[in-house]
Design goal:
single chain; 167 residues; mainly alpha; two-stranded antiparallel sheet; 7 helices; 4% strand; globular
Length: 167
């Protein structure tokens, strides 16, 4: 891996987006819109543990491509790869019978997300958390994801290829 490839990662992307957004406050531009979109996307990605890791073992001597090669059976007896399961598990478990929200968002979708954001802010007010949580850096998030992948997800998968509510 060359230096350029090493520098292209979630931690550096988050820092870059934050610096662009901080430097150009009060200016509406394509660049700010793009950086905000990238920031939101990459912050989500960095919290998905398999976005920054691969498992190497006898079954996957060239790596499992972040769980994309690991097959498992879901709670609903569907076959799915581990990465896709983790990408979609929150919505599936919390809202198993709901339809997906169509994109692009219509007025109803916008109201839904606005209401959801209000509920999250009410249920989890900023004053509930100490400064170490509020000021957590992208490096902390990356390390948490690494820990979750190596200590919780992959060991669980090694024992069973059946996903359950203990996940």
């Amino acid at each position: 891996m060359n230096q350029y490839e090493k520098d292209i990662n979630s931690v550096n992307m988050i820092d870059w987006c934050k610096s662009v957004l901080s430097a150009r406050k009060g200016v509406n531009s394509f660049e700010r819109a793009l950086m905000m979109r990238m920031l939101m996307h990459v912050v989500g990605d960095i919290h998905q543990p398999l976005h920054s890791i691969a498992m190497y073992n006898a079954s996957f001597p060239k790596g499992d491509m972040g769980g994309n090669l690991v097959k498992l059976t879901t709670i609903n007896n569907e076959d799915m790869n581990l990465h896709a399961f983790l990408d979609s598990v929150a919505a599936i478990i919390q809202h198993p019978n709901e339809d997906r929200i169509p994109r692009p968002l219509d007025d109803s979708g916008k109201r839904y997300f606005s209401s959801l954001a209000d509920k999250i802010m009410k249920d989890y007010p900023k004053n509930r958390y100490n400064s170490s949580v509020i000021n957590a850096s992208s490096k902390v998030w990356a390390n948490e994801s690494f820990y979750i992948a190596t200590e919780l997800i992959y060991p669980f998968v090694a024992k069973s290829k059946q996903a359950d509510y203990n996940w």
